[in-house]
Amino acid sequence: MRDVFPIARRYAYLDHSSIAPLATPVRTTMEVFLNRQSEEPFDLDHWERLRIQVRARIAELVGARPEAIAFIKNTTAGLGLVAAGLDWREGDNIVGVAGEFPANIYPWLGLKDRGVTLRLCPHDAGRVDPKALLGLCDDRTRVVAISLVQFWSGFRSDLKALSTGLRSTNTLLVVDGIQAVGVLQVQLGQLAVDVLACGAQKWMLGPTGIGFAYLSQRALDRVRPVVIGTDSVVHDREYFEYDLTFKADARRFEEAAPNWPGILGMGAAVNLLVRAGLAAVETGALRLADRLRDELISRGFRLVFRPERQGEKSAIVSFRHPRMVPAEVHRRLHDAGIILSLRGDFLRASPHYYNNDADIDRLLEALPR
Predict the structure, then answer these.
(1) pLDDT digits (tens, 9 = 90+) for 99-119
(2) For the chain, what is the domain count?
(3) Same domain flag for 126 and 144
């Protein structure tokens, strides 16, 4: 699999929690569509058949039914479906987590002028306690919004505990999945998650400007499409008879004019992950992350978050040099061909399944003592 990532020939690319590089089959798939569109009449039926295949592939990736999957442009758009589409009342609230990525904060803050408040649960050195989070909920809590993996610490949330705690309530569990899907095994069929939104440009190894949202039946019953287009309705190819009957499944949120090259590129990326084996992908990435944590500790670096309990580990490793300015270390690594993120006052590495021990060695050798 490493051979289909051209970037690996030059760089130790350890920044998949930011923007991932494209594999050759992903780029080629998108080029095929663009070449066909430039040289041949547009064949809607052909491309629609492929869209159906990609939808099924994504459903396989996250353990869901294809009819629960909607194509969206990014994670924010998926979370925005809920923020815009629920029938909010003054006095309602959302419960979230302090330190979340802004994509999972701003859609909820935007409801302030409707009398809806956002309650943020503090984290404990990077950990989010499900009991503390659920303790902020009351009978006016409409949504609990949380990332499956926190972007800065790499902490993996206990969705099972949260879904169990919310199962008998009217509160929707809304999950930002972008730092998990594609590298960790996610089986939504085993969890009472109502909405999961995910862009393709990180761990899924897909292009930017495309992603997917999963919506449970409970979410479909409550969230109304706000932007409505031809693809939202049952008679999507009837242009002279207007019938505002929404499709029964998540496709009602797809509006019109799909991002065909994005969808096909995302499908090609998911095909690579499935081919590699989802269990093998997770095992390989976590092994490299574990090794990096151990090596950093032995060399005197400080971890932003150190996973110690069952189920809280991801492939994100955030760390600080005990003395040097992070920006200086980041610049030094970049000049050595090692790509990772500078986030605030720490560095963040995020190896994927096609990385290897040589990439980790290259990073460790370039780090200042």
Answers:
(1) 999 999 999 999 999 999 999
(2) 2
(3) yes
